[in-house]
């Protein structure tokens, strides 16, 4: 991936995160509120509750203050985009929007590689992958050994 | 405001009426050779993990490639359900963790799906009689393309789950219906009609038993005029019959809970078919946050119509909505209307013909081969044939009596060679499937109508002579007793006498 594309990729990811922080609405670059050119409230949005929620949803581990600060930096970085006036402009969802979505013919061209796929499995039973009986949710904040407890 | 269900008004006449609200989310597996985003095969019941590509197993470095057939299937279904087809639709990622979702997200169309704002019309009978049918409509909110997940087999004994990814990545159409229904019966009728439409289009075989059609019901109740109540989601419904039971049970459960001063919790419940009730599902960790985000690996899906079709483009890369529209087959509602018009049968009859697998073709076959009027043929198809089929759980295609044989039998009846009671006897013989023709059975059992007038007169006279009491009653003015005499003649001739002729002869003799 070229550096330019890597940049675009990172922006896409953080835009998605910002959108999610704002409540999941498709208003990535649109100026809804008056908070357009004022100081981005990134301190407010990245709270302990949000970090705990993210750790639970995405199973990431912020590990220490540096990890959290990196997230804050990323949010600040992306929020600068809101300084741009995008009134009446369609949001950009994909950097591929001017490309044609390739349509494949409905032919069977893959599959039948059970043995190869199962090579990656730590445990298997008669060609099935083995998984724990159900989702094991992350323990609550109080019961977890995490740096977030201190904040 | 959903229509107020007649059933519930009647049941709760003495108390403040409850208005149940039922919405459905239906997942239909697309009939295609390969999966939605990969080239592995779509097949029911194959060795575990044999129909899985590297993309389906979510190995790094793999990318989704959209299957054209799946797009066409979704467009066909959208058009059949009167939807607006979005010429530009987008793909999104829906994130959640589960062992049978290797990528950790499902590619779906949450923001801008392929079709929106449609409607589905369905009919149901009031009062369980087929005589009164009413047509209802449910609005279709949207139809979206999405991936199926793999299958989990829970091994509680060894405390593990076995995962088979054969189904992972298969194309699904999610049909979201607005909460316009108010009871289990309406939900079942709507799903049945959708099933027939999908099967007619060929976009999905929609066999619930094989998991090709999965229905989740959203149920809530409220008092008229008040806002909607808290809703629960009911899953694990494996047949249309169970759908009716599950929805009705849940409505009653919620009403009981609220009338006892309790509250309805916004939760997901599973239908237990053995107990006939819904139970809370354990593995749900509170309200899920799916963190929807645009699928970065797929540009928007652009569809064209006759007007917007670009001039010099590869046809294989283009899906033309108008082209698909022109080639839509006759939908069930159209088939029914044609049956009524062509054959003069009642709407309720056409409903059953289209509803039962293969019955319409069977009926049309018989009508072609017999002189009997369709209105009379339909009686034989719907009462005699269908009741036997149902008793033995057979479809029309599996009937031991073929349309040829039935047509032969009906011709004998129509020509006056046998009486209708004799015909029923022949029908029973034919059902045994011993390979005999109707004519052979008639000869074997000597069921031909007695054509000899003298023979008939003799038998009638014999009955009159035997039954002095009845003869007296008739002569005194009680005309109905003649039916008893006709019955006796029929017994004496073993169903070989034309009842009208017998009545004439008896009346003549008795007036002498």
TrEMBL record, chain A:
The keyword Kinase does not apply. GO terms for molecular function: ATP binding; glutaminyl-tRNA synthase (glutamine-hydrolyzing) activity. It comes from the Eukaryota. Pfam families: GatC. It is found in: Mitochondrion. Coiled coil: none annotated. One of its GO terms (cellular component) is mitochondrion. Residues 1-28 form the signal peptide. Its EC number is 6.3.5.-. It catalyses: L-glutamyl-tRNA(Gln) + L-glutamine + ATP + H2O = L-glutaminyl-tRNA(Gln) + L-glutamate + ADP + phosphate + H(+). Keywords: ATP-binding, Ligase, Mitochondrion, Nucleotide-binding, Protein biosynthesis, Signal. GO terms for biological process: glutaminyl-tRNAGln biosynthesis via transamidation; mitochondrial translation; regulation of translational fidelity. Belongs to the GatC family. HAMAP family: GatC. Allows the formation of correctly charged Gln-tRNA(Gln) through the transamidation of misacylated Glu-tRNA(Gln) in the mitochondria. The reaction takes place in the presence of glutamine and ATP through an activated gamma-phospho-Glu-tRNA(Gln). Subunit of the heterotrimeric GatCAB amidotransferase (AdT) complex, composed of A (QRSL1), B (GATB) and C (GATC) subunits. PANTHER family: GLUTAMYL-TRNA(GLN) AMIDOTRANSFERASE SUBUNIT C, MITOCHONDRIAL. This is Glutamyl-tRNA(Gln) amidotransferase subunit C, mitochondrial. It comes from Gallus gallus (Chicken). The gene is GATC.
Automatic annotation (TrEMBL), chain B:
It catalyses: L-aspartyl-tRNA(Asn) + L-glutamine + ATP + H2O = L-asparaginyl-tRNA(Asn) + L-glutamate + ADP + phosphate + 2 H(+); L-glutamyl-tRNA(Gln) + L-glutamine + ATP + H2O = L-glutaminyl-tRNA(Gln) + L-glutamate + ADP + phosphate + H(+). GO terms for cellular component: glutamyl-tRNA(Gln) amidotransferase complex; mitochondrion. It is found in: Mitochondrion. It comes from the Eukaryota. InterPro entries: Asn/Gln-tRNA_amidoTrfase_suB/E, Asn/Gln-tRNA_Trfase_suB/E_cat, Asn/Gln_amidotransferase, Asn/Gln_tRNA_amidoTrase-B-like, GatB, GatB_Yqey_C_2, Gln_synth/guanido_kin_cat_dom. Keywords: ATP-binding, Ligase, Mitochondrion, Nucleotide-binding, Protein biosynthesis. Its EC number is 6.3.5.-. It holds the Pfam family GatB_Yqey. One of its GO terms (molecular function) is glutaminyl-tRNA synthase (glutamine-hydrolyzing) activity. Residues 361-510 form the Asn/Gln amidotransferase domain. The keyword Nucleotide-binding applies. One of its GO terms (biological process) is mitochondrial translation. Transmembrane segments: none annotated. HAMAP family: GatB. Belongs to the GatB/GatE family. GatB subfamily. Allows the formation of correctly charged Gln-tRNA(Gln) through the transamidation of misacylated Glu-tRNA(Gln) in the mitochondria. The reaction takes place in the presence of glutamine and ATP through an activated gamma-phospho-Glu-tRNA(Gln). Subunit of the heterotrimeric GatCAB amidotransferase (AdT) complex, composed of A (QRSL1), B (GATB) and C (GATC) subunits. NCBIfam families: gatB, PRK05477.1-2, PRK05477.1-4. PANTHER family: GLUTAMYL-TRNA GLN AMIDOTRANSFERASE SUBUNIT B MITOCHONDRIAL AND PROKARYOTIC PET112-RELATED, GLUTAMYL-TRNA(GLN) AMIDOTRANSFERASE SUBUNIT B, MITOCHONDRIAL. This is Glutamyl-tRNA(Gln) amidotransferase subunit B, mitochondrial.
């Amino acid at each position: 991936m070229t550096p330019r594309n890597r940049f675009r990729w990172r922006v896409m990811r953080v835009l998605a995160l910002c959108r999610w922080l704002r409540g999941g609405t498709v208003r990535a670059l649109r100026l809804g509120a008056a908070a357009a050119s004022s100081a981005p409230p990134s301190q407010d949005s990245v709270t302990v509750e949000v970090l705990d929620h993210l750790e639970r949803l995405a199973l990431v581990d912020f590990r220490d203050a540096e990890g959290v600060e990196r997230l804050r930096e990323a949010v600040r970085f992306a929020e600068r985009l809101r300084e741009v006036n995008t009134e009446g402009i369609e949001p950009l969802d994909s950097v591929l929007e001017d490309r044609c979505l390739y349509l494949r013919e409905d032919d069977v061209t893959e599959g039948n590689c059970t043995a190869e796929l199962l090579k990656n499995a730590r445990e298997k039973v008669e060609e099935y992958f083995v998984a724990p009986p159900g989702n094991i949710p992350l323990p609550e904040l109080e019961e977890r050994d995490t740096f977030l407890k201190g904040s | 405001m959903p229509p107020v269900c007649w059933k519930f008004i009647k049941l709760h006449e003495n108390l403040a009426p409850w208005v149940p609200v039922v919405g459905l989310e239906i997942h239909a597996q697309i009939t295609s050779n390969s999966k939605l985003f990969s080239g592995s095969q779509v097949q029911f019941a194959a060795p575990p993990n044999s129909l899985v590509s590297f993309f389906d197993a979510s190995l790094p470095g793999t990318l989704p490639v959209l299957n054209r057939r799946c797009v066409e299937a979704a467009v066909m279904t959208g058009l059949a359900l009167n939807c607006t087809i979005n010429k530009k639709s987008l793909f999104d990622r829906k994130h959640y963790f589960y062992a049978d979702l290797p990528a950790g997200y499902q590619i779906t169309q949450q923001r801008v799906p392929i079709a929106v704002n449609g409607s589905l019309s369905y009919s149901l009978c009031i009062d369980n009689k087929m005589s009164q049918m009413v047509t209802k409509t449910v609005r279709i909110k949207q139809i979206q393309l999405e991936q199926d997940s793999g299958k989990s087999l829970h091994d509680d004994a060894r405390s593990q789950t076995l995962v088979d990814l054969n189904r992972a990545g298969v194309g699904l159409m999610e049909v979201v219906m607005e909460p316009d229904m108010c009871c289990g019966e309406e939900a079942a009728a709507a799903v049945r009609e959708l099933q027939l439409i999908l099967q007619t289009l060929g976009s999905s075989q929609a066999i619930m038993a094989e998991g090709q059609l999965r229905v989740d019901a959203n149920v809530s109740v409220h008092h008229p005029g008040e806002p909607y109540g808290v809703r629960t989601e009911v899953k694990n419904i494996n047949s249309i019959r169970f759908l009716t039971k599950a929805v009705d049970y849940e409505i009653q459960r919620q009403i009981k809970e609220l009338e006892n001063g309790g509250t309805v919790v916004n939760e997901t419940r599973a239908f237990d078919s053995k107990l006939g009730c819904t139970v809370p599902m354990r593995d749900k960790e509170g309200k899920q946050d799916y963190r929807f985000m645009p699928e970065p690996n797929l540009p928007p899906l652009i569809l064209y119509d006759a007007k917007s079709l670009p001039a010099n483009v590869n046809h294989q890369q283009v899906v033309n909505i108008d082209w698909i529209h022109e080639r839509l087959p006759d939908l069930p509602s159209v088939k029914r209307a044609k049956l009524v018009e062509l054959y003069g049968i009642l709407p309720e009859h056409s409903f059953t013909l289209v509803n039962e697998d293969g019955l319409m073709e069977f009926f049309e076959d018989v009508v072609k081969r017999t002189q009997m009027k369709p209105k009379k043929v339909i009686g034989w198809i719907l009462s005699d044939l269908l009741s036997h089929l149902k008793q033995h759980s057979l479809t029309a295609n599996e009937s031991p009596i073929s349309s040829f044989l039935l047509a032969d039998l009906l011709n004998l009846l129509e020509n006056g060679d046998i009486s209708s009671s004799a015909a029923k006897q022949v029908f029973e013989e034919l059902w045994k499937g011993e390979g005999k023709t109707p004519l052979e059975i008639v000869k074997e059992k000597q069921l031909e109508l007695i054509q000899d007038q003298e023979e008939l007169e003799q038998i009638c006279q014999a009955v009159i002579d035997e039954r002095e009491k009845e003869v007296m009653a008739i002569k005194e003015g009680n005309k109905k007793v003649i039916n008893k005499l006709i019955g006796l003649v029929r017994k004496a001739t073993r169903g070989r006498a034309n009842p009208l002729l017998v009545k004439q002869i008896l009346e003549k003799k008795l007036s002498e």
